[in-house]
Specification:
single chain, about 375 residues, alpha/beta, Aspartate Aminotransferase, domain 1, Aspartate Aminotransferase, domain 2, 2 domains, 7-stranded mixed beta sheet, 4-stranded antiparallel beta sheet, globular
Length: about 375
């Protein structure tokens, strides 16, 4: 078999890219890295460094930019869940670090509000911990024991629980227990709201709002806790060893953090609204179509277009629409229900709104 010396592209191996109208979903490859991030990764690949020195220097630089005590780069937000949990369980004790996920003789209980359980919390129990669920402040006060290692908060569920973040923090700290927040798809704003509530660490995905490397995560918080998390991860022979983050991802994530405070977030929002307007205007001529704009919650912070219609009037249902978008040109991914679809403009690039508008109009006109 002969190979040329050109860079292999998606099309060369039969993979067809798409216009992303869904958002920063990992299964859809997250976000597109900023140009500054790509450049930083290329430059990082040109020389050797000691990872411990690099991680500490980047941690201090992140602290300056994000106005916090320290920063840690991980191989995604899920890796941060594992490493920070391991730090709460084993700390910097090399013997304990080497035993995980065997937590015999160690603290191995993580307190969480029942409403904060999330599909990704397996990254926490992988350390050898188990959850103790609570529903209210009375439950919380009764849940502490000599085995309590950490209190876990799922940022997207903050408004769903009976106990506020500040109440969780005050209670946990009165018992000498650290509090850790998973804020993967949220905005890492400065100053950081979670850190202002007193949490010990908060983790974000590097490949979502930040538009950094997809295989990266950002943790902000107490220096001693994050340094312990680093010891429980790669390049050390710890439970987090498989969660390798290389020099390219580390410098790429730093570039994304630096760009975060430089980006014009208001201009981005206005651009998203304009894209949604172009798409919605292309559908107003069709009978039974109803259009609304949905404002975001804590995660995936962008306005979303919601469109519904009567399939019996337009002659097309959700399954047909989904198939035509998937198989058409350009290929388009969006969240489609039986007679409703939504468009999240966050990951759409310039000009793609017009392509989506044209394709939707074609599909509904053909019916």
């Amino acid at each position: 078999m002969n190979f040329n010396h050109q860079v292999t592209t998606y099309s060369d191996i039969g993979v067809k890219p798409f216009i992303n109208c869904v958002g920063t979903i990992t299964a859809l490859s997250g976000s597109l890295s900023l140009p500054q991030v790509r450049q930083a990764m290329v430059e990082a690949a040109s020389g050797y460094v000691k990872l411990s020195e690099l991680m500490d220097a980047v941690g201090r630089r992140i602290a300056q930019v994000m106005e916090c005590e320290y920063g840690l780069v991980t191989a995604g937000c899920a890796a941060a869940l594992t490493q920070v949990t391991a730090a709460c369980v084993a700390g910097t004790d090399s013997e304990k670090i080497g035993k995980l996920p065997d937590t015999s003789g160690m603290k191995n209980e993580v307190i969480v509000q029942k409403s904060h359980r999330v599909g990704y919390d397996r990254a926490i129990t992988a350390v050898g911990t188990h959850f103790v669920e609570v529903s209210n402040i009375e439950d919380l006060e009764l849940a502490y024991s000599d085995l309590t290692a950490m209190v876990f908060v799922f940022g997207d569920a903050v408004e769903r629980g009976e106990i506020s973040v500040k109440e969780m923090v005050d209670s946990a700290h009165s018992h000498g227990v650290p509090v850790f927040v998973d804020a993967a798809a949220e905005r890492p704003d400065v100053p950081n709201w979670y850190l202002e509530q007193g949490v010990d660490a908060v983790a974000y995905s590097g490949g979502k709002c930040l538009r950094g490397p997809q295989a990266s995560g950002l943790v902000l918080g107490r220096e001693n806790l994050l340094k312990a998390a680093f010891l429980n991860g790669c390049p050390h022979g710890a439970i987090g060893r498989p969660m390798k983050v290389g020099k390219e991802e580390i410098m790429g994530l730093l570039a994304a953090v630096e760009q975060w405070v430089e980006r014009d977030h208001q201009a981005e929002w206005e651009a998203w609204e304009k894209r949604l307007s172009i798409i919605s205007n292309s559908l107003t001529e069709f009978d039974s179509v109803k259009i609304s704009i949905i404002q975001p919650g804590r995660s995936n912070v962008a306005p979303c277009l919601s469109v519904s219609w009567d399939p019996t009037i337009l002659g097309v249902d959700g399954s047909v629409l989904r198939e035509k978008l998937e198989m058409g040109e350009p290929r388009i991914e969006m969240s489609v229900g039986e007679s409703q679809f939504s468009v999240n403009p966050y990951m759409m690039e310039h000009g793609e709104d017009e392509q989506v508008a044209l394709r939707l109009k074609q599909i509904f006109s053909e019916s």
